[in-house]
Specification:
The protein folds into two domains: 123 residues; 128 residues, Heat Shock Protein 90. The chain is built from eight helices and five strands, in the order H-H-H-H-H-H-E-H-E-E-H-E-E. It has a five-stranded mixed β-sheet, with helices on one face. 28% of the residues are buried.
């Protein structure tokens, strides 16, 4: 419709040049029709695009109101004050055409230019904030986080160790963001934090990849929790490690400690009961595999594999 209106402007220009002038009301009606066909479709498109943006929509409405007032005022002056003369027809045509140009430029182009400029400004501001956040994160990592880690490793007080480790985790979460609650890697990190806080131990966590929590990944997370709990209770050491890797085909987890260990061939005792009930049974129930390797005096490894 907008392109048809532009074509009708060319036809109108030809008619003004080569045909007799009609009466003034007919001139006004023709100009309103032609300019309306040229402008209204574009303004309706702009209004649809700007819906929901209050600032741009307010600018659009003001320009439309100004254009309508200019067209109405020019037509009224030519009809009621100047009369049906060549001058009156010229004033009417010029005012309506100028109103159409104002509406086309002000109501269609300017709001889009405004939105584009605002988008560019917001992107630039977001980039600046990201750079500043990266600088702060680098500074805190090189100073505060390393100090907290050193305090946690050097102190012998359980409460100080727990406080330093918890503060380090909170600061890392603030700097690098918290994953979704339904995320497997987030669940592993949370249970590691719980074990550290409850038993005043240090768990070095290495996590590669992740996926949404489901029955199988929850079983792996529960088995990892039990492995760490057993190590914290019975291994006699304050440091242990967990490696968790998620691939397209399986979830792999390995919990290790270098504590007192135990004899896996013994079928009774707290170690073995916890392994059978809470680790092996939990994983195998969902089609996974659990293997426990332990040597008295050298530590324990619990390897878990869950096919996906």
């Amino acid at each position: 419709m907008g392109c048809l209106g532009f074509c009708s402007l060319g036809v109108l220009a030809w008619a003004v040049e080569y045909t007799p002038r009609p009466s003034l009301p007919v001139v006004v009606a023709i100009m309103l029709t032609v300019v309306g066909l040229s402008v209204v479709p574009w303004t309706r498109l702009a209004a649809a695009r700007l819906r929901g943006d209050h600032e741009a929509d307010r600018l659009f409405r003001r320009v439309v109101a100004l254009s309508a007032s200019a067209a109405t005022g020019g037509a009224a002056i030519s009809v009621f004050l100047i009369g049906d003369t060549p001058a009156g027809a010229g004033v009417a045509m010029a005012s309506i055409f100028a109103a159409g140009v104002v509406a086309l430029v002000g109501a269609v182009l300017l709001p889009w230019i405004y939105l584009l400029a605002r988008t560019i400004t917001r992107e630039r501001a977001a980039r600046v904030r990201a750079e500043e956040r990266a600088e702060v994160a680098a500074h805190l990592h090189d100073s505060v986080l390393q100090a907290l880690t050193l305090i946690h490793k050097r102190t012998e007080e359980p409460e100080v160790r727990r406080l330093a480790r918890g503060t380090e985790r909170e600061l890392r979460a603030w700097l690098f963001g918290r994953p979704s609650e339904d995320d497997f890697a987030a669940a592993i990190a949370e249970l590691v934090a719980e074990v550290e806080d409850r038993y005043a131990v240090t768990v070095e966590l290495v996590s590669v990849g992740s996926r949404a929590l489901d029955a199988r990944t929850r079983a792996v997370a529960g088995a990892v929790r039990e492995a760490l709990t057993n190590a914290a209770k019975h291994a006699g050491v304050r440091e242990m490690s967990v490696l968790v890797e998620v691939t397209e085909t399986e979830v792999f987890a390995l919990a290790k400690d270098r504590g007192r260990g135990f004899d896996p061939s013994v079928h009774n005792g707290p170690h073995r009961r916890g392994i059978v009930d809470s680790i092996e049974g939990r994983v195998r129930q969902h089609g996974g595999m659990a293997e426990v390797r332990s040597i008295p005096g050298e530590g324990t490894e619990v390897e878990l594999r869950m096919p996906l």
